[in-house]
Amino acid sequence: MTYDNYYDMLVHYGVKAVVQKVSEGTTYVDPTAKYNLASAKQAGLYLNGYHFARYTTVEGARAEARFAVAAAQSAGLPIGAVLATDVEASEQANNSYAANTANNKAFMEVVQAAGYRSTIYTMGSWVGTKMSVDKGWIADYPYNTSRDRYTSHHAWQFRSDQQFAGSYGNFDVSQLYDDFFTANQTPSPSAPVTPVPSQPAKSNAASDTDYAQTGVFKPSATVNIRTGAGTGYASVGSYATGESVIYDHVYIRGTYVWARYLSYSGRYHYVALGVNGGESYGSRSSNAQTYSHTYYTVRSGDSFWSIASKYGISMYTLAANNGKSIYSLIYPGESLYIR
């Protein structure tokens, strides 16, 4: 998920908060959590997380809670945010009401001791039958959603197949009934400042111009990805030394020269090629066909999703191209084949 995806949800759909999966059991850490939370924060959304529970005992619940806290901290989930326990697996289905209730209590106590707030996410049919839920986050998908349900709880998840224009796949969406998921943070849309040379050359252009030119750009320093051809547009990511981008149009806008490319989200993004008549931010070739293969060197914080979105390919394709699945671990310094 990118800044564009989340910001569009905020502006056009009224989305206020995200709840990102961070972990499951005591072995799985979601590889997209860090990137998604950073993008959502940049777009101005409240950040929250959840852990998919596999525990069946109090000690197991405490162990999973410690694991979830570590995963949440590593992903950048701010202290004071919600770190919920998602209780809906076969392990809990086969457990007793008393055991589930005690296990959930133990999980939330560890999470709260670490500075996060916690609640139980589960299906409506399990409330009061499989466990005690005081004020939770309840999932129930009726045919008719015109009437609010579970209003005594923090939130009601009313569908799992919501689609947003410009974003890929289906999303779980919920109705909030209080400020539990929108507390202890002061979100506001923001974007990193585009780095500029310390002594930029003056533009030689008398007016703005553009060219229908295709090519490959390889930056010699980190350059920001923008939503438009100008430093006033939002930054949604960056390209680093050693990466490449295939562009289809070049724009001269005042001081800078910009390249346009079509991103994985189906939207055009822009990177600065350099200063008009001055410093270049990398090398470029007007013949994209001369580059038969593209490779990417993994950096800290990268995920299959974040890398794939840069190059306009599916994260499943990226993983398969490298003999991996999207759940495989990738490490800084590792080289991945793009296309």
TrEMBL record:
Annotated ranges, domain LysM: 294-338
One GO process term, biological-process aspect: cell wall macromolecule catabolic process
A GO molecular-function annotation: lysozyme activity
Ranges for region Disordered: 187-206
SMART domains in the cross-refs: LysM (SM00257)
Pro residues biased stretches: 189-198
UniProt family annotation: Belongs to the glycosyl hydrolase 25 family.
Protein's name in the database: Spore coat assembly protein SafA
